[in-house]
Amino acid sequence: NAGVMQNPRHLVRRRGQEARLRCSPMKGHSHVYWYRQLPEEGLKFMVYLQKENIIDESGMPKERFSAEFPKEGPSILRIQQVVRGDSAAYFCASSPPLRTSGRPDTQYFGPGTRLTVL
Amino acid sequence: DAKTTQPTSMDCAEGRAANLPCNHSTISGNEYVYWYRQIHSQGPQYIIHGLKNNETNEMASLIITEDRKSSTLILPHATLRDTAVYYCIVTRGGADGLTFGKGTHLIIQP
């Protein structure tokens, strides 16, 4: 059973470009979460999505950041007009559907995408 | 989610049990205690979780005090590969975003 997959693992962008980070959840999981880890800091929750719906985006910066989880395909975290402060590791996690777990939905993390903005 | 307090760092000799404490005095009745670890810059790895009973799996044991205000993660026979930052997180579960603190940097000494 493959774990959470993220690609690319490393991404380099120049200021002003767009960054697209992809996340494929574990098989059978329908909930996706994105977290950001700035250098020398802890992980910060950004957004929680289910298929075709954003459930909680309380941690998302108000501008330039967006996320989607389409009916088909991976979840995408999109950062427009990147700035140097966006350089960080971005982690995706997934959890199973609430109705099947019967217990709290453990989140399983992917290996992350390291974004470097030049 | 309730706030947790962990020591900044700890050392443990290889082969010995590593006991990592966590205080969560404001935990609510419906909140679980979760432990994750992050080795170097990898993605966080789930270790174990519990509500009020002690739990054990192939990786670790979790001891939760009767009043649920604190817990201890036990790695029974620490190896060098257990060197990592360990995060204690209190959450209702469901589908909430997790709140990561600074964690405990556990260093296993040869």
Number of strands of chain A: 11
Give the overall shape of chain A.
globular
Distance between the termini of chain A: 37 Å
Largest interface: A-B, 31 and 24 residues
Radius of gyration of chain B from the CA trace?
13 Å
Task: Describe this entry's structure for a reader.
The complex is a heterodimer of chains A (118) and B (110). Chain A is mainly beta and 118 residues long. Chain A has one helix at 98-101; strands at 5-7, 10-13, 19-24, 31-37, 43-50, 53-56, 65-68, 75-79, 88-95, 108-109, 113-117. In chain A, strands 2, 4, 5, 6, 9, 10 and 11 form a 7-stranded mixed sheet that branches. Chain A has a 4-stranded antiparallel sheet with strand order 1-3-8-7, with no helix packed on it. Chain B has 110 residues and is mainly beta. In chain B, the strands form 2 sheets. In chain B, strands 1-9-8-3-4 form a 5-stranded mixed sheet, with no helix packed on it. In chain B, strands 2-7-6-5 form a 4-stranded antiparallel sheet, with no helix packed on it. Chain B is globular, with a radius of gyration of 13 Å. Chain B starts with 8 loop residues before the first strand and ends with a strand. The A-B interface holds A 4, 31, 33, 35, 42-46, 48, 50, 55-56, 58-59, 89, 91, 93, 95, 98, 103-112, 114 and B 32, 34, 36, 41-46, 49, 87, 91-103.
